[in-house]
């Protein structure tokens, strides 16, 4: 979810104008670089970096890599907000600002739209905190292993995934056990049983789960799959979902 603060120079509709006057946030139609959101093909210096990001991301996210263990420590939520603030997300074509603004704005925007769903406000605040993996205190993982859109590994890479062509160099793409529609999974097996490319989503989900978070299943689902655009934006991989996934997907669509 990408939400920026009020930007008066943008043209806004009546409803949005009302919300701004009300002291709320408004989501502009163009990003900080003057382009429409999530446009991965516009020519710009920023795009070159984003494309290079996805080249390394798509080559290195393999079943072996995703199955590696990680280490843990104890940090407060706010300390983590401050840690992620040090980084610029190389995969994001829309934002080149530190993360803390993004977290607070996302939480505030969703609070305005869903004032009674307090779990959703918290979910929004922490949804990207897994980006702490970029920090030396959390292993200093490279950007390709932390950010960017996520996708299943262990079955065919769907064409709707951004910069899909770079999967040609991913060794799993040539592995007959991994390159079919179902690969190592089965019809309706549930996303919980699907290996997803490693990154900030799955990490933050694991931290919440292992610490016995009381967030509802939909909150955990949002954290875990918010970067899975092929699913929630393009409808790919639905054949792997079970009933609970279908219910939770409705909340994820609201969030995005
Ligand atoms: O570039 C962005 C960024 O890394 C976000 O945090 C992630 O959730 C999005 O899926 C991705 O497109
Ligand atoms: Fe985000
Ligand atoms: Fe994210």
UniProtKB/TrEMBL annotation:
Q: Which cofactor does it need?
A: Fe cation
Q: One Pfam family this chain carries?
A: MIOX
Keywords for this entry? Ascorbate biosynthesis, Cytoplasm, Iron, Metal-binding, Oxidoreductase
What pathway is this protein said to act in by its record?
Polyol metabolism; myo-inositol degradation into D-glucuronate; D-glucuronate from myo-inositol: step 1/1
Domain of life from the UniProt record: Eukaryota
What EC number(s) is this enzyme filed under?
1.13.99.1
Q: Show the catalytic activity.
A: myo-inositol + O2 = D-glucuronate + H2O + H(+)
Give yes or no: UniProt keyword Oxidoreductase.
yes
Does the record's keyword annotation contain Lipoprotein?
no
**Protein localization:** Cytoplasm
Provide the primary localization: cytoplasm
How, per the record, is the cofactor bound?
Binds 2 iron ions per subunit.
Similarity comment text for this entry: Belongs to the myo-inositol oxygenase family.
Q: What is this protein called?
A: Inositol oxygenase
């Amino acid at each position: 979810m990408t939400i920026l603060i009020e930007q008066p120079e943008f043209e806004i509709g009546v409803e949005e104008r009302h919300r701004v006057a009300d002291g709320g946030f408004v989501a502009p139609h163009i990003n900080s670089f003057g382009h429409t959101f999530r446009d991965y093909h516009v020519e710009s210096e920023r795009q070159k970096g984003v494309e290079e990001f996805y080249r390394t991301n798509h080559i290195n996210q393999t079943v072996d890599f995703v199955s590696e263990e990680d280490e843990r420590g104890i940090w407060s939520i706010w300390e983590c907000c401050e840690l992620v603030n040090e980084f610029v997300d190389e995969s994001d074509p829309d934002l080149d600002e530190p993360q803390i603004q993004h977290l607070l704005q996302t939480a505030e925007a969703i609070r305005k739209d869903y004032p009674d769903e307090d779990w959703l406000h918290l979910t929004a605040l922490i949804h990207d905190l897994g980006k702490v993996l970029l920090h030396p205190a959390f292993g200093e993982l490279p950007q390709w292993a932390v950010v960017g859109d996520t996708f299943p590994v262990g079955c065919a890479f769907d064409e709707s995934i951004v910069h899909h062509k770079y999967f040609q160099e991913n060794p799993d793409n040539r592995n007959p056990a991994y390159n079919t529609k179902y690969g190592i999974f089965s019809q309706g097996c549930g996303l919980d049983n699907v290996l997803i490319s490693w990154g900030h989503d799955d990490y933050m989900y694991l931290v919440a789960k292992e610490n016995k978070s009381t967030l509802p299943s939909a909150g955990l689902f949002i954290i875990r799959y918010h970067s899975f655009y092929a699913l929630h934006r393009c409808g790919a991989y639905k054949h792997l979902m079970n009933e609970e996934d279908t219910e939770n997907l409705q909340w994820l669509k609201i969030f995005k």
